[in-house]
Amino acid sequence: MIRIVIADDHHVVRRGLLFFLKTQKDFEVVGEAKDGQEAIERSLETQPDVVLMDLVMPTKDGIQATKEIKQQLPDTHVLMLTSFSDRDHVVPAIEAGAAGYQLKDIEPDELASVIRQLMSGEKPVNAVAQTELEKERSEYKPHILNPLTAREQDVLAELTKGKSNKDIASTLFVTEKTVKTHISNIFAKLSVQDRTQAALYAVKHGLTEPSGKG
């Protein structure tokens, strides 16, 4: 079963999604949220496979909620389901860790397919939103990587995916202490203060592939 949390501030939208998702034999809705803070709380309580996240919500918006969910539940897939397709909304959502970005006018059967794609490792982005992402990427020239060693580049690539130090260490076959040292060096060389700033810097300057790109 694919365990899903629905986060949307409109009751009618939540009801509609719930009704449809219950018709799918491999889906189970384990929580609902009417704002970003509740989305975080329901996700931490239920640890779902997928969160269907509205972008504009009270208390905390979908972008902030996505950041916090991905920090604490890196294996949970966040699918933005919104009415906005402009670059000012698409890019921050992907940079926050959203694995997919779809518009609310998506056909129900296509939505089900997209959710299953997420579980298979794909990162589906609506065609209109994808165009905005490509425009954003085309504005940045690849950054010279000389300041970072090859191993620091590897660590940064994994950090940008939202992985924890433990997961990075496992992926790169090094100790967590080594990962912490590399991250400290990365912060110093890129003049950033934390993991989020490092990830955003990496995406914007072409240091590594954005987490929203499959």
TrEMBL record:
Q: What is the lineage of its organism?
A: Bacteria, Bacillati, Bacillota, Bacilli, Bacillales
The keyword DNA-binding is annotated on this UniProt entry = yes
Q: What is this protein called?
A: Response regulator
Question: 4-aspartylphosphate modification sites?
Answer: 54
Show the InterPro entries listed in the entry.
CheY-like_superfamily (IPR011006), NreC/VraR/RcsB-like_REC (IPR058245), Sig_transdc_resp-reg_C-effctor (IPR016032), Sig_transdc_resp-reg_receiver (IPR001789), Tscrpt_reg_LuxR_C (IPR000792), WalR-like (IPR039420)
Going by the UniProt record, its keywords in alphabetical order are: DNA-binding, Phosphoprotein, Transcription, Transcription regulation
Q: Sorted alphabetically, which PANTHER family does this protein's record hold?
A: TWO-COMPONENT RESPONSE REGULATOR
Q: Does the keyword Transcription regulation apply?
A: yes
- Domain (Response regulatory): give its ranges: 3-119
Q: Tell me which residues make up the HTH luxR-type domain.
A: 141-206
